[in-house]
């Protein structure tokens, strides 16, 4: 038997000895017995298994958040440092992590490969699609302790909390007006310029706000998404549609503990309780006027929308 044949048989013996299979490069493929994920090194597999154990031994000394891995804690601590060393060459936006910069750069490519199977809307990132799909589910597990408003994602709740703080840290350099959110300041600053970055892809009209563009596009489609089979009322948001459906049953299980008035939905009760508390959690990002309900804010916003549409039509 020649040496080549002996080597071949020797390899077969190693593969048949019951050990984990080897990858093409000669490393053993180690498999997690809980999720099936594979690793080439035992140390990496053991670190991964901590995720399934629920043990989070590494705690941030600034905010108290805990992590299963020390590397994840170190990454998290970068956000407290305020250092954003990775800059986008196209728009100048900066990021703490290179991975976040790379994800952001997809936006400039114009490629939207992730499409919602319910409404057809497309996104550049899978994470953004998953966040969007929560809208269709109607699930809003994150509730504001101050006004009861609920949100699909925690980040939206955090942004909302600023409204209650009363802090207006963002000041316009042109007129000195202050805002609670940076987004509101950016929108306001367009009033000082001719910037209208939102363009209708059907008629080429441009608008200062994305919300105004969405309102305008309904002129072309003429469609609302959800229709009540009982009264034919239509809704653009699934959560509002589901809340409305409860009004047809006649049941009013939600009672105000101050005046005993009852409501068919928890949303109706929350809105009513603002009459007792005086809270007005919905703020216009154009003029900062506040309202008790989102519908009241929408009706008010139409004032700004009509002005912009008139301005665009006159061009």
Give the structure's gist in a few sentences.
The protein is an alpha+beta fold. It has eleven helices and 20 strands.
Walk me through what this model shows.
Residues 1-23 are annotated as: Disordered. With 315 residues, this protein is α+β, with helices and mostly antiparallel strands. The protein has a domain at 88-137: Classic Zinc Finger (Double Stranded RNA Binding Domain, 2-Layer Sandwich). The protein has eleven helices and 20 strands. The protein has helices at 3-15, 42-53, 70-81, 98-109, 126-137, 154-165, 182-189, 210-221, 238-245, 266-277, 294-313, and strands at residues 30-31, 38-39, 58-59, 66-67, 86-87, 94-95, 114-115, 122-123, 142-143, 150-151, 170-171, 178-179, 198-199, 206-207, 226-227, 234-235, 254-255, 262-263, 282-283, 290-291. The strands form ten sheets. The chain has a two-stranded antiparallel ribbon with strand order 1-2. It has a two-stranded antiparallel sheet with strand order 3-4. A two-stranded antiparallel sheet has the order 5-6. Strand 1 and strand 2 (38-39) form a beta hairpin. The termini are far apart. Residues 3-19 have low confidence and may be disordered.
């Amino acid at each position: 038997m020649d040496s080549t044949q002996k080597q071949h048989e020797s390899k077969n013996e190693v593969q048949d000895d019951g050990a984990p299979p080897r990858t093409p490069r000669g490393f053993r493929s180690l498999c997690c017995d809980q999720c099936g994920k594979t690793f080439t090194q035992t140390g990496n597999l053991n670190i991964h298994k901590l995720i399934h154990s629920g043990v989070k031994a590494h705690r941030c000394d600034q905010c108290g958040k805990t992590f299963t891995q020390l590397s994840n804690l170190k990454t998290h601590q970068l956000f407290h440092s305020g250092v954003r060393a990775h800059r986008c060459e196209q728009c100048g936006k900066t990021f703490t992590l290179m991975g976040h910069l790379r994800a952001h750069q997809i936006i400039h490519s114009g490629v939207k490969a992730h499409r919602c199977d319910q409404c057809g809307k497309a996104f550049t990132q899978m994470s953004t699609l998953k966040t969007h799909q929560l809208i269709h589910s109607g699930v809003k597990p994150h509730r504001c302790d101050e006004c009861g408003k609920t949100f699909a994602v925690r980040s939206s709740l955090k942004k909302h909390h600023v409204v209650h703080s009363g802090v207006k840290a963002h000041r316009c350099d042109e007129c000195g007006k202050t805002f609670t959110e940076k987004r509101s300041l950016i929108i306001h600053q367009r009033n000082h310029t001719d910037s209208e970055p939102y363009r209708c892809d059907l008629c080429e009209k441009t608008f200062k706000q994305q919300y105004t563009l969405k309102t305008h596009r309904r002129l072309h489609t003429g469609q609302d998404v959800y229709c009540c089979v009982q009264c034919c009322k239509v809704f653009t948001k699934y959560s509002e549609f589901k809340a409305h459906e409860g009004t047809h049953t006649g049941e009013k299980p939600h009672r105000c503990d101050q005046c005993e008035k009852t409501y068919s939905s928890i949303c109706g009760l929350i809105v009513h309780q603002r009459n007792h508390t005086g809270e007005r959690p919905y703020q216009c990002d154009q003029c900062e006027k506040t309202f008790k309900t989102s519908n009241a804010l929408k009706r008010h916003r139409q004032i700004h929308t009509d002005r912009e549409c008139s301005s665009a039509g006159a061009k």
